[in-house]
Fold:
Amino acid sequence: MTASEVHSYVNYLRSTFSLIEELQIPTIAVIEGAALGGGLEMALSCDLRICVVFKDSPKNFVGENALLGLPETGLAIIPGYVIGPMFNSAGGTQRLPRLVGKSIAKELIFTGRRIGGRDAMSMGIYMHTNKLLFPFLYFLHVQL
Structure:
């Protein structure tokens, strides 16, 4: 991609994630497995984040195997910049501190540390669901 194409693409992602964040209906990100970089940025733009791993039935519905993070620093990319200061990120570096506070957000962003489901839940990035939602979410998963 050229610098111009990258700029257009990142602007498109940012506006899409902002649109999701501003929807007048509740939005739920169901994270199955990993949500790294843009995947986590999209999830952060939703009202609720639920981490799940579907094995073979709603009874095996757990989120502890999730992996979340903004790994850009591990790739020598500064989050908030793609190629120089004129290219902003898709919003994860702004949304994460609103959820977990500045200190934790800075630690995750600066180190690029990937966190598991238990840590993400204790930080407030996602929450477990009420067991009443399991059959509904499992139905959605099967339908997709």
In short: The first strand starts at residue 28 and ends at 32.
